[in-house]
Amino acid sequence: MSLFGSVLYWFIEKVGQHSAPLFETYNILNVYDTHNLEVGAFMCQYYKNVLPVSFMHFFSKRSDIHDYHTRNKSDYNTTRNKKAFTDRTVRTMDPILWNSLDETIKKSKTTKHFRSLYKSSLISTYY
């Protein structure tokens, strides 16, 4: 039986129960966390300068904007938008997610290693 089939079978058996233990048991991410994993992988590639040249100046760090020695000067600058639908764009969401990550996850050696660390971090929040 495939993974999807076994998940579907388990879900049919336990209708009405919370799905977080199911995702934790099978070590899979829900839709929202899958999106966050892809957003984080994009920022990891940006951080390591492996994206195409057109993305080179897509984000800016706070230290590029001012010379004050603040505790968050190494974080990426977040933008504020007037329209609510633009708050979900790559330019807005990626720095917010990246700034919220733990330093050990940010400093991962490769994108594959980043995905592994971040996925285990997300799954550990399920229960």
Question: Which helices and strands appear, and what pairs or packs with what?
Answer:
Blueprint: H1 3-13, H2 20-25, H3 31-47, H4 62-65, H5 90-100, H6 103-106, H7 111-123
Task: Please tell me how large the radius of gyration is.
Answer: 18 Å
Question: How many separate helices?
Answer: 7
Span from first to last CA?
A: 26 Å
- Tally of structural domains: 1
Low-confidence stretches: none
| pLDDT averaged residue by residue | 80
Strand content: under 5%
User: Which structural class fits the helix and strand makeup?
Assistant: mainly alpha
Order of helices and strands: HHHHHHH
Shape type: elongated
Structure summary, number of beta strands: 0
Q: Helicity, in percent?
A: 40-55%
Main sheet record: none
